[in-house]
Each structure stands twice: as C-alpha cells, then as structure tokens.
Amino acid sequence: MGNVVLIVAEIILLMVAIRYFVQKKFANGVLAICVGALLALCMWSITDEENFNAQVADRETVVKQRLGQIRIAEEAYKEAHNDEYAATFEDLIDFIKNGRVYEVNKEGVLSEFQQQEGWTDSSAAARVYQIKKQYAGDEAAISAAIQKELQGFRIDTVWKPAIELFADVKDFCVDSLSKIPFSGGEEFELSACQDSTRSGMKIHIMQCAAPDASFLKGMGVRGQRVMQDRAEFAMSRNAYCGLKIGSETADEWNNNGGNWDQ
Predict the structure, then answer these.
(1) What is the pLDDT of residues 87-116, one digit of tens each?
(2) For residue 223, what are the domain limits?
C-alpha cells in the first residue's frame, strides 16, 4: 500500500506540472488520461491484494486439513494405547501403517425390559464376544444364540487396518503426514504428555502446531509483513502464532480443537 501512495503522489505532482506548463486544453486531455491511469492502478492494487489474501486463505485451508488428519490419527492411536497419544511422528505413522482400529457395528436397540434387566451396550457387546468365541466359525449358531439372548439386538466390534481411516482422503500419503504443506519439508511441532488439571485430575493431552512462518514462506514482502503483523498480534494476546490443535497444558485442554475456532 505504501508503494501505491507514492505512485499516486507522483501522478498528482505530474498533473500539476502539466497543467502549469502546457496549454489548458491539452492539459485537460492529459489530466483525463492521468486520472484514468490512476483509477486503473487503484483497481489493480485492490485486485492484487484480494488475490494475495485468497492465496493465504488457501494455504491455511490445506494446513487445517492436514492437522485434521493428524487429529484423527492421534485419537485412534490413543484408543489403542491406553489413552496415551503419540509423542513422535515416527510412532504415529508406524501405527497408521501397521496398527488396527475397531469399528462398532450396531443393529437394533435395547428394549425397555432389557435395560431394566441391566443390559447396556457394553455388556451386550461383551456377551456377543463370548457367544462368538463359544461357537467359533458357526455363524448360524452365533446368530441363533444372539437372537435368543438379546432378542435381535446386536452390537459387534470389527477390527480393521488403521490406514482405512483415510480411505476417503484423496491421494493420502501417510509418510507426508508429518510435513507442513508449503514449508519445503518442515515438520509439524508435535508433543504429548500427561498433565494435571487445577482439580488434580490427570489427563493425557497432545498438541500439534504449524507456525505461520512455515506455511507462509515464499510469499514475498507482503508475506513477510503478514507474518510480522500476526506475530505482534499473537504476542499481545499471549497466543500461538500459527495454526494448531490441542494444547500443551491440561488447563487449556480443548479436546483437540483447532485454535482457529476459538
């Protein structure tokens, strides 16, 4: 914007000089041309700024999507590792490649009588597991036993490869999960630990973050200005300068939410 102001000032000075030294009729024509050029320059400046802002927004969207994939992977890892999150991408990526996750398939609902008898989804799932183990391989016997004991209600756990969590993600590459888009190969900042809340309750937490300086690099002088403005704003609020999910402290824990939603 500073360059535009200088250009506008030079054009105004030029118009004043032309009007002073040249005949009035000719000067009016030149003045009209200069005004047109000035308007065109302003329109170009506005359009160029809008295009730049759109590029910044597009980069942020891609980084948010990658953070969302990391959140899915971390929560699946936690389910399989006694509520602990992966503290390194080496562990997280290995889990996605070689680990398993379970999927709950549920048919029907527990009747009011079954609930009064003390049945819950968990106890029903445990009983289904026992029945399947008892009649291993005999699907007819399994179905008959479930029908007799649970009256048509069925809840089952099916294990599948962890990589299938991303079956619907186009061109998903697990080895790139740790890389910040547009950064030239920089990795997300990942941490995981156990921390205590003010009430003394211990919980496992994680944080994954991408600093603005990583995914806004290569955007020229304006990109540098945006990063500087954001850094000053974040510092004034004691906030993280970039995009992140989760938190490094239990008191600020947000269930792995993104800081762009706060």
Answers:
(1) 999 999 999 999 999 877 777 777 787 787
(2) 53-97+169-261
